[in-house]
Structures are given as structure tokens and as C-alpha cells.
# Entry
Amino acid sequence: MSTVCIDKLTKRYDAQDEPALRSLSLDIAEGEFLVLVGPSGCGKSTALKLIAGLEDVSDGTVSIGETVVNDYASRDRDIAMVFQNYALYPHMTVYENIAFPMSIARRPRAEIDAAVKDVARTLQLEALLGRKPAHLSGGQRQRVAMGRALIRRPSVFLMDEPLSNLDAKLRVQMRSEIAQIQRRLKVTTIYVTHDQVEAMTMGDRVALMRKGVLQQVDTPDTLYHRPANTFVASFIGSPAMNLFRAQLTQSEDAQMMVTFGDQTLAVTDRARDRHPGLRTLTGDAVIVGIRPEDIEDAGLVGDAAPSWKIRAEVKLVESLGSDHMTHLRIDAEQVFDTDDDTGDVAPDKSVCIARFGARSTVRAGQTATAVVQCDWLHFFDPKTGEALSKTAQPPGKDP
Ligand code: ADP
# Structure
């Protein structure tokens, strides 16, 4: 086990104008599971390769424990890696595959045997030690690849999309297995994925990147409930947070309101307390964010104040059984802060997705009334996309 400290890490590939990684700084604690996540091309694999010593650093430092390892070869960094394409040796048994790193290091046979059995126990591979890879399932092969990495008892585990070759069901199973093994062994782990669900379910902390720049690093809950900007808000959560360009207004009784298109909602005291940045905002333009689960079919909840309701035409209902993803037509400028169309406004696509409960009877073509949890509205600066909520508290805790 070791800490990993990366300080102002930058990587410029020869063929590139823009750096693949810009001044990334992260401190990963001993035994921590840190996930690097972001869309394709955001620089997460590059970061991992720099930590692994597979690419040269352009600027900045990588430290493992107390040691700056920039000039150390990969094999001298006391790390182990598991990649998407984990090539096992097809002619060797599971036992021989796991033993391989120790065999080539010419360790004594008894020591190898004890280590293989120990790793096999951890990964529940004991019954499969005599098999060849061709006779294993995808998940079992993945576990053997992990075993081969684990047997070296590395200080740091680096994993790059290790589950992306598995089918959906196995991925779900393996992600909880890997997370449990990591917690049991407490090996400092850095895990790269483009999948926000993997990131949220596996990581102690999640570092979300975009175009080589770190956007936010924090616990999964904090990323979800207190996104630092509209990009984080859009990336974490499925369906994504609804984002609209909006105006702050005041009702006749001096209540702060937010208007987007033909809808107006209350900015409650609680929402205001969660967004101290609202006070320092210049002008009255904001981006308002509403999570789908904060919009419920009014027919399923008790009475709510009119200022907590929206009425809108239903364009589509996607029933998942447990939830009805209800697409409401909102005549407002929607904000899409993704890598493909940064900040693009698509008024004709003005849809607000609500997660209505299983008992909702609302159907496409109807006009639905929905209750919005106005305490949990999100607000962002329309100029910068930065959250106005730096000091907000996650739900359940009073602001
Ligand atoms: P990610 O893992 O997030 O998908 P990468 O770290 O692989 O992203 O890549 C980041 C950027 O660097 C991309 O624009 C990619 O095309 C570029 N890149 C990656 N490897 C190389 C390389 N060896 N030479 C030149 N450009 C590269």
C-alpha cells in the first residue's frame, strides 16, 4: 500500500497542439479506490500511463509513497496493471498464469505455491486452477488477470477499463467483486472508466475529467448532489440533470422565483441557502438544474404549493416498470453541456425528463401536472457554467 501523489501533471503528445493532460493534481490516500472518469479522449488513460511509467511526463511529478518516480522504469514502480485486453497465456493453466510473474522472477517453488493458493482463495479461483483460459468464462478470465497482477503484492493497482469486454450482466457482478476485493486487500487503486455508473458505484472518490482538465474530485454523493459545474451535472446521473436558461424574478409577496420558458418555480429558502452564489450573481440570468427524480406526477403526491408545480404536455413516456421516464415539453432554452455540443442551445428539443413513479397513469399526448422538489433545485452561473452552490449540503442534512 502506498499513497500516490500527482502534482501538476501535464502530457503533450508530439502530434498534438493541445495537451492531452493539463496540470492534473491529485492526492490518492493509502488504500483508497479512486476512479478517473470522463468521456472518450479526456485524458484518463494518459494519466494512468504516466502513473504507470508507460509514457514520459511532459511536466509535473508522480510520487508513489515518498518517492518521485518520474525517472523510474515501470517495473521499478511497485505497481500492477489490469487492462481491458488482459492477455492470458492460452497454453498455461490458471495456476501457471497466476504464478507467471513469480516464476520469471525465479522465486522458490514453495513460495510460489503458497502465493498462488492465497490469491486463488481471494479471487475464488481455487476450483479452476487446473483449467486453461479457453475453458473459462469472461468473468473468470478477468479474475485470473487480476490474480496475476495481485500476486506481485503491488503497492498500487492500476486498472484501465477492465470490464469493458464483458457483457452487461457480468459487468455488474464484476464491478461489485472488484470493489469488494479492493476493500478487503486495501491496495491503493486507480481505476479508469468512461462509465459513470461504474465510477459512482466503485470509487471512494471519483475524479471527473474533460479535455485533459480535472473538473471535480470528490465522493460519488458529492459529485451527484453538489456538481461543480454544468458539465459535471450533465455527466453524473442518468437520465441527466435537466438544465435550462432561466431568469430570477420576485413574486408579489417578495418570494424569489425562477422562470424558464412558460414555467415558474419557487426558489425556496433552503434552495437559496444551498446557493450562496445567487447573492453575488450579476443580473438575473441563471441556469437552473432539476434532477429527474425531483419531478413527480402530481397525482402521486399530496398537495403542493402552486409555486412548486409545472404543467406541461407529455411527449413520451418510457416505462421501466419501476419508473416512468416522462418527457415533458418545456418551452425554454435547454443547455447541453457535453463534449459534443458544449453549451449548445436546442430550443426545439426542449424536453424535461421527469422520473414519475411506477403508479403514474400519465400518457403521451396528455397535459401533466408535476410537483418539483424546489428545495433541491440547482443553480449555475450562465457565463461560466460554475455552480452557485459551493457550500451546499447533500440531501438529508440541513443547509
Ligand atoms: P481517454 O483515456 O480519456 O479516452 P486518452 O488519454 O487515451 O483519453 O487520450 C487523450 C488525448 O490524447 C486524445 O485526444 C488522444 O487522441 C490523444 N492521444 C492518446 N495517446 C496518444 C498518442 N500516443 N499520440 C498522440 N496522441 C495521443
Remarks:
- Residues 168-185 form the longest helix (18 residues).
